[in-house]
Structure formats: structure tokens, C-alpha cells
Amino acid sequence: MTTAANNNASSNSLFSGITKLGEGYIYGDNQVPVDIHFHKILEWLVDRKKLAKDWRKQHALLLERMRNGANSLPDAKAFSSFKSKPEEITYFDIETILKELEKNGEDVSKNLFGQYNSSQMKEWSDILKKYESTNINLGESANTLLTLANQDLPLLKRNTESARKEMMELERKEVEFKKQIVNLEQRFKQSCNSLGINGNDIRTEILQSVGELDVIFEKIASILKEESFEETIAFYEHFVYLSIEEKSENGFPLLRYVHQYGNTLLRDYENRKENREVEIPKELEAESSITLESSTSSAPQEIDWDSIETIDIQGDSSEINWDMETVTEDMNNISSNFEIVEASESSADKETLLGNGQKRREFVNELMELDGFFGQRLEDQSHEDSLQLSIKDPQFQKFEGKATLKESSSNLKKVIAILEGQRTKQLLEIKTSRRYVDRLVASLQHYLDCIERSKSSVQYSSTKKEIFQNQIAESGPQNESIISKIKELKERLEGMLTKQYGRKVTIVGDINKY
């Protein structure tokens, strides 16, 4: 005994300075606080047997019972939110439902076994007891807290940030589309100006622009009608005469005609040309009269009938069809194969001399011949050793002045520039080619289509931008609502855990930053 007592005394003195840590020591179980990281709440509850491993299956059955029970709730205003969204009912809503059922006049009496007589009260009371007896209320609250903190709130922030980026991108695209619209409108306007149209009715205005050719041709005719132009042609013909000693008074017929009559209708030109060809010179008239007189002065000769050979018609006369009705019917059949076209004034009757492609090419050739001649004369004059034919001829010398040559060459080049100009060629293409008109219309219409698409894109960007603006504006209250729910649920869960575990339980971690 003495030895054992001595050993105990020595051991007590050995561990007298060591304090045991843990639950139930020094401060007692109820005084030791418990800190639980919010990410591990569910694991902590399952590990300590506070929550069954298959609690999610039991929770699903309770949710189904609550959804069914919500459909049978009275049609009172207090239950409208529960009936419209039964899937959002939680453990904390059950007590509210029980209180509202009691206010709504449900029977709150109980039988001998402590159960409600009312089916509604009994059902919701059983659901509440099931939640608390299995601690599913802890699991549901912990799961909801994790969902709010780890999913809903980060998702809201990502969506808000994405909406801001999308809105900035839409603003950038909207600026680009507006610049593109301005650029396309300017190009469309330039194309319309080059065609001389307004662009309101593209095809009609393009076809009507052909009338500008008459103005152009009249301008050419006014240049050629100057008196100096007749001297220009005369100088060229005199130069040819001095060169080859051969006069040509019928050269440049189209230039002479436009100089004298202007750009008349093609039919008027043809009529005047035929009249000039029909006119008989006096020398020919004298020769024809002499021939007629000599032929009438001679005595008439007798006809020798014996010299006339008879013609033997071969073949059987029976082959000849003497039936006039049959012949008339055949002629009617022949005439029926032809289409009778009524004479009407066509566009060809309104065509002018320069408006005709063939005549215009001949007209340009005559101009180019004259222009080439005067250009060569000017070049010859620039050389000291050039052949001076004008010295020997007074008429040639009168026109050979360098200023006169330059004036004639300038007028010819002015007419050629008008005829060979881009605008004239464009109008002639419009007049003669339907495909060219279709290409012009398609090109301008393409600008209009691009403008409309760009305007639609701007409208779409504005609409989407407004949606994102509303989303960003709503994200603020939604963010505050989620944070408020997190704080409230955290306090409730800490209270339930403290009540369940019998000591102060605190949820720690990033959740406390909200």
C-alpha cells in the first residue's frame, strides 16, 4: 500500500503542470466553441452522425410531399406565393404555412395521440417533424448556403461582368456600323452623282438620263456650227489639192452636214442625202435631151413577124388547175402564215444622227482625220526645216498662221473629248445595253441593301445594349438580396447547430466577407 501510494504521488507530481485539452476538460462541453468552415458543413454533419448519408433522398421525398401539399392549400392571399412556386418552399416556410393555416380557420385541435385533427395541419406538422427528427433541416440549410455562396453569387457577378463587356463591344460595333452607314451613303451619293440621278427611283432615273445625250450632241453641233469650222475643212481640202492636185468637194459629209443643219433626226439626214443623189447635173440633162432627140428623129421600123419564134409549151394541159376557187383558197392559206404588223412610230424614227451608232463612228473617224492633220501641221511648224508649202500659195498662207492652226486643233479636240468622254460613253451604254443598266441598278441597290443591313445592326445593337443595361441595373439589387439571404441563413444555421450540438457553433471562412 505504501509503495502504491508513493507511485501515485510521484505520477501526480509529474503531470501536475500539464493541462488536458479537448471536449469536457477545464471549461466543460458547453463552454468550448466550435468553428466550422462553411465549405465543410455537410461533411462535418455527416461525419458526426448528425445527418444521414442518404439524406438527399429523404429530402427529395419531403420536397415532393410539400409540392403536393401546396396544391391543396386554401385559395387565400397568404398562400398565393406557395401555390405559384411550390418548388421554392423550404423548411423555414413550413412554420409560416402552419401559422397561416391556423389564421385561416383550420382546426388546431389534437387527438389523444397528440396529432392534429385537420388533415392540412397534420400533413404540414408531420413534414416539420420529419425535417427536425432527421436533421434534414440542417442539411437543407447548409446546402442552400453553399449554393448561394459558391454558385448563385459568383454566377451573378460573372453575368454582370459579361454584360458589361458585351455592352462595351456593342457600343464599339455600333460606332463602326454608324461609320459604315455614313461611308456607304457617301459612296452611294457619289455613284448617283456620277450617273446624274438622285437615287430615289434608280432604274427609272437611269433610263431617263439618256435624254442628256441630246444636250451633249447639241453642244457638239454648236461648236461645229461656228464659221471658222468651214474654213477648217476648206484648209484641209486645199492642202490635199496642193499635195496631189486633186479637188475633193465631197469630203467629210457628216461634219459638213452637222455644220450646216446640226444634229437632226437620222431620217431627215437620209432624206436630204437621197435628194442630193436624185438631183441631175445640167451636163447630164443636156446629154439626155440630145439622146432623146436623136432617137425620136429616126423613122419607125416595121416589125418582122417572121423573125419571132413561137414557144412550144411542153406538158399535158390537164395538169393546169383552171379552178379559180382553189387558187383563191391557196392564196388565203399563204397570207394567213404572215403576221400583219401595224405601222407605228418607233424609237428609230426619233433617233438623231449622232445618236446612231454607225453614223457616230463615221463622224468620229472624220474628226480624228482632221485632228490628226492639224496636229501634224502644228508639229511641222515647230521644226525649222519643215516643208513650207504655204509660201507659194496665198490662200494657204492666209490660214497657215500658228494661232489659227491651234484654234482649229483645239476645237476639234474639244469635240472629240466630249464624244469620247466617260459620261458620253456611259450614257450610250445605258441607251444601248439593258445588261449594263441592270449592272448599274444592282450596284446601287447593293449599297442600299448594305445600308439597310447596317441600320438593322445598329438597331439590334441598341436593343441588346438596352437589355444588358437593364441586366446590370438589376444585378445590384439581386446581389444585395443574395448577400442578405446568405447572412440570414448563416445566422439561422449557426443557431440550429448551436441548439443541436449544445455549444456555440460559428461558421467561418470566406462567407464572412459578405
Explain this structure to me?
- By secondary structure, the protein is mainly α.
- The protein is built from 19 helices and two strands.
- The protein has helices at about 1-15, 40-45, 55-70, 80-85, 90-105, 120-135, 135-195, 200-210, 210-225, 225-245, 255-260, 265-280, 280-295, 325-335, 355-380, 395-400, 400-420, 420-430, 435-500, and strands spanning about 35, 505-510.
- Helix 5 runs antiparallel to helix 6 (about 120-135), helix 9 (about 210-225) packs antiparallel against helix 17 and helix 15 runs antiparallel to helix 17 (about 400-420).
- The longest helix is centred in the last third of the chain and has 68 residues, at about 435-500.
- The two termini are about 65 Å apart.
- Residues about 1-5, about 10-25 and about 280-345 have low confidence and may be disordered.
Task: Outline the secondary-structure elements.
Layout: H1 2-14, E1 34-37, H2 41-47, H3 55-71, H4 80-84, H5 91-103, H6 119-133, H7 136-195, H8 202-208, H9 212-224, H10 227-244, H11 253-261, H12 266-278, H13 282-297, H14 324-336, H15 357-381, H16 394-399, H17 402-419, H18 422-432, H19 434-501, E2 505-508
Parallel strand pairs: 1-2
Helix pairs in contact: 3-6, 5-6, 7-19, 8-19, 9-17, 15-17
The percentage helix is: 55-70%
| Overall morphology | rod-shaped
Portion in beta strands = under 5%
Helix and strand succession?
Answer: HEHHHHHHHHHHHHHHHHHHE
| Biggest sheet overview | 2 strands, parallel
Side by side, the strands of the main sheet go 1-2
Low-confidence stretches: 1-5, 9-27, 279-345
Structural class: mainly alpha
Strand segment count: 2
Average pLDDT number: 78
Radius of gyration: 57 Å
Query: What is the count of DSSP helices, taking H or I runs of 4+ residues?
Result: 19
Distance between the termini: 65 Å
